[in-house]
Amino acid sequence: MRITVINEAGFCFGVKRATQLAFKTAAHKTGRVFTLGSLIHNPQQVEKLEQAWVEVISCLEQVTDGTLIVRSHGLHPKILKQAKQQGLKIVDATCPFVKKVQRDAANLRKEGYQVVIIGDMDHPEVQSIKGSSGNDLVVLGDKTEIKQLTLSKKLGIVAQTTQSLENFSQIVAQLAKQASEIKIYNTICEATAIRQKATLQLARIVDAMVVVGGRNSANTNRLVKLCRKINKPTYLVETADEIDSKWIEGKKEIGVSAGASTPEWIISQVMQQLKAFN
Q1: For 175-213, what is each residue's pLDDT tens digit?
Q2: In the annotation, is 145 catalytic?
Q3: Which of 125, 145, 190, 253 is catalytic?
Q4: What domains sit in the chain, N to C, each tagged with a CATH number?
Q5: How big is the CA angle at 209 (ends 207 and 211), to the nearest 5 degrees?
């Protein structure tokens, strides 16, 4: 059996930067170091950060001093303001590409456009973008949601960085039919687009796919959906011990992909386990 992993597997730039900042901050800490919510969407890497004394808190009321590391998805400006008022030190690990979406959305609003972000309503990145550009921003996760809304004829559109190009294009096409003026920023991260393309290309030529990443990771789940959409047997695992040998019985070639927040050490363990079953 042949096992092939996409070249793009592993941390994207934003996630790598955030984790490096977190470990560096913890190593030089003079007090408590924490993130409001998980720094990235990978439970195993977050556990490693906790072992390095980077705590995860659920609200700022849990702390009175220390250093807040802003998660890679960004934070709502009101939360950052509260943190500063509490006298917390702040290390900003927001992905630069997320910051760009925040700026683009804010500029569109200033220019008089009704801003639409194509993304997942409850995702922390979307919440940070909403906060940066106005809470009246419209969030669309699927083209079927459009008919439920009353939209302006002047629309400005951005995307959550981990959206699929297919979903983005479908929603934009639908919105273009009812808007008289439309301004579009394709803010899907290039690393996301490349990873999705590589995963789909591999899925078309193998017998089954194993996608590695956190179940709470939007971009990881999107890779799974892409593979299953072409009816390819696809299995999502967070760790190597979740792999079932029955998945690969009788298969000649297995493809492996991974979300942008999946560390290389987990991918290596998955590859080793698959080879052991071979």
Answers
A1: 999 899 999 999 999 988 999 999 999 999 999 999 999
A2: no
A3: 125
A4: 2-10+191-277 (3.40.1010.20), 13-95 (3.40.50.11270), 97-188 (3.40.1010.20)
A5: 175
